What does this fold into?
Amino acid sequence: MADVKLTNVKKVYANQVEVMRDINLDIKQGEFIVFVGPSGCGKSTLLRMISGLEEISGGTLEIDGQVVNDIPPSLRGIAMVFQSYALYPHMTVYDNMAFSLQIAKVAKDDIDQQVRKAAEMLQLTPYLDRLPKALSGGQRQRVAIGRAIVRRPKVFLFDEPLSNLDAALRVATRMEIANLKESMPDSTMIYVTHDQVEAMTLADRIVLLSAGNIEQVGSPLALYERP
Ligand code: ADP
Ligand code: ADP
It folds into this structure.
């Protein structure tokens, strides 16, 4: 039930530069979509428009069949994982994951269940009582992902979640994200990267962007396997 549909979406920043023209894209529920393209091609802009952090200058964006152009980020049923893991430094791993649910006044038992389930999924159970500073970069990024999972969003948005990790952690965390996709097959996942390997290993479909346009859309094989 969480299709994401962009119809003739445009983006013009305040400086009048048109960075997106006429983006049309139909993302199906449960799909893992990866936006790839060189720096500056508009990947983050597209993701921020879907999240609501950035306004759409034209066209319509629908989530779950509802036009969300004017709906604030908190009411879109989405959760974002950013490149830099902005964890609360004075809160434990548990509390970092529980916080948004506490704010939303979710019952304590439900919070506990959600947090422990997410921790299990991300192999964070042994670290629940630690502070972020006592974790590796990869573990911190998993906490950031856990914080998104507990909210049970309809749509996950990932903005270059691996780019701050060193090579070994990048591979391990990429595998965690692939596992996440397997454990939450109904969740729609939209992922931005400039890394072709990430795109090929994670994507159901890849959207290749270039200078604010969709250049190509297709499966990893269709896009990268040249005859
Ligand atoms: P990517 O994520 O692919 O690197 P961005 O979405 O960050 O690309 O940027 C796309 C284009 O929009 C770039 O030309 C960039 O300079 C421009 N841009 C991004 N943010 C702003 C902004 N706040 N104001 C003006 N131009 C911006
Ligand atoms: P303090 O009491 O130290 O001011 P804050 O909660 O204001 O604590 O912020 C501490 C850290 O948590 C900051 O590094 C900030 O970037 C991060 N942070 C604050 N709000 C959020 C949020 N909504 N999501 C993720 N990280 C946040």
